[in-house]
Amino acid sequence: MIIDFHTHVGDLRTPERMDRLPVTWEGLIERLDEEGIDKAVVLPTRVSPESMRGPALFQPQGDLLSQLETARKYQDRIIIFGNVDPRMGCLGNLEPHQVANPPETDFSWVLERFREMGCVGIGEITANIAVDDPRVVSLFSQCGEYELPVLFHCTGPGRGVYGLYDDVGLPRLERLLQAAAGTTVIGHAPGFWAEIEGDITVEKKFVYPTGPIRKEGALIRLLRRYPNLYADISANSGFNAISRDRDFGAGFLTEFQDRVLFGTDVCFGGADGRMPHLGYLRALREENRITPEVFAKITGENALKILKLYSAGAKERRKV
Ligand SMILES: [Zn+2]
Prior knowledge:
The chain has about 325 residues and is of the alpha/beta class. It has a single domain, classed as TIM Barrel, CATH 3.20.20. Helices cover about 35% and strands about 10% of the residues. It has helices at about 25-35, 65-70, 110-115, 135-145, 170-180, 190-195, 220-225, 235-245, 245-255, 275-285, 290-305, 310-320; strands spanning about 5, 40, 80, 120-125, 150-155, 165, 185-190, 230, 260. Strands 4, 5, 6, 7, 8 and 9 form a 6-stranded parallel β-sheet that branches. Strand 2, helix 2 (about 65-70) and strand 3 (about 80) form a beta-alpha-beta unit. The structure holds zinc ion (ZN).
């Protein structure tokens, strides 16, 4: 079974590029059929302000509840995640004794609703705060308690972009992985994938580095050390990381065959909504650069392994 672990439905256009097409539910299913993909994880959009440009605000039925409810109509093809901004959950007026040590934000009510609605993970988190911000640690830890893996967009430090930010070497991600050791954490995006290579400059965390990888990076160290870290190869960032150095990429996919997830992050309909990831993985398999087992794990088996709630739900459905 092939699962695209990273898709969106909705209007993600920018005012500068209104010629592109939003992704519709029907368009997504059509693309899956065309590419030979069995199922897609849909990550709801319009949750954090940084990941929205104007057009999303004017999209009918674009709110979170509409996305979750529509996903139910496509249960045989769509695996749905919930989404929430870690900054949500105002603590209100504090008691005098809480001022020095405010309590953590409590997401349990929200996570329970998501579970009731059939969501089997949370993401994509795009708030532009630190990866180890206490509010992020709180959300991720609680997701672990509810058996919900969390997928996040990672960027470099500074203002103006979207995604949780980290410094060179991913020290903040390491703190999060330690603090939320019971949570499956799925990383993605330039701030994450640039770290496949060592000794990078901070600028590389915002772009799509190319060229041979001369030294192993922090990402590799963290994947070896923390079993709760997973890597989503979607978008240009993930694709570049595994293809910029073919031999290194094939070695990476083989070493971390149990922790890499195939995804596309298609954001637009039509021709703009085609990504090279699956074709590239198929080519690697045909050239014997990765084994059929590695291909099967990355393109579907790993997803089913970490989506325990989905697997349990699927078994329940079969019994009926
Ligand atoms: Zn995305």
